[in-house]
């Protein structure tokens, strides 16, 4: 017997679909099939595929916020920044489809998405405060950290690190170089 269909159940199965099959696999028909219901039954809980994608993106952003906050707690400076970078990598690696939901073409005017994104970035900006960077320079740092994390997680997921050298050590060294280099460059 199948479980009762709720908005939360739809979100959970959607997360499973995007993580296993990719973000592009998320369709209402695919979700309905996984829940063993007819597609029109989904409309009792969601208004559209865009509504579902927005809910999934918000869920992903909340998870990212939590992971980054947890990584930064009790740390400061370079240690906190490195921990945040590793948190990004772990979330992207463990939940690739869910992370893709944060990158999807959602409404750029959506206040909920924008607020959650801003709250997440604010954690990193707070860690950067002791470096006295301008807001623009701090955003350059955030973008670089995110891009470096994304690169490592993507390459690892696609089997791009087959040399017998500890990957976490490579990541740690790259973060050290990036953090020290960016701080030195941006403080000029």
UniProtKB/TrEMBL annotation:
Query: Where DNA binds (residue ranges)?
Result: 27-46
Superkingdom field: Bacteria
Where do the HTH tetR-type domain residues begin and end?
Answer: 4-64
Matches recorded under Gene3D superfamilies: Homeodomain-like, Tetracycline Repressor, domain 2
Q: Which UniProt keywords apply?
A: DNA-binding, Transcription, Transcription regulation
- Write down the Pfam families for this protein, in alphabetical order: TetR_C_33, TetR_N
Recorded GO terms, molecular function? DNA binding
> Does Nucleotide-binding count among this protein's keywords?
no
Q: What is this protein called?
A: TetR family transcriptional regulator
């Amino acid at each position: 017997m199948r479980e009762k269909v709720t908005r939360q159940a739809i979100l959970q199965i959607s997360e499973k679909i995007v993580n296993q099959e990719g973000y592009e696999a998320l369709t209402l028909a695919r979700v309905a099939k996984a829940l063993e219901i007819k597609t029109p039954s989904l409309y009792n809980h969601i208004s559209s595929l865009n509504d579902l994608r927005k809910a999934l993106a918000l869920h992903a952003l909340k998870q990212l916020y939590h992971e980054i906050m947890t990584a930064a707690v009790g740390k400061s400076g370079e240690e906190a920044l490195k921990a945040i970078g590793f948190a990004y990598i772990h979330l992207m690696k463990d939940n690739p489809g869910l992370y893709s939901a944060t990158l999807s073409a959602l409404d750029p005017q959506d206040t909920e998405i924008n607020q959650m994104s801003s709250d997440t970035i604010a954690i990193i900006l707070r860690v950067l405060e002791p470096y006295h960077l301008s807001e623009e320079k701090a955003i350059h740092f955030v973008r670089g950290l995110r891009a470096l994390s994304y690169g490592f997680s993507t390459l690892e997921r696609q089997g791009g690190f087959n040399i017998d050298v500890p990957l976490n050590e490579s990541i740690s060294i790259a973060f050290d170089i990036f953090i020290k280099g960016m701080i030195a460059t941006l403080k000029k």
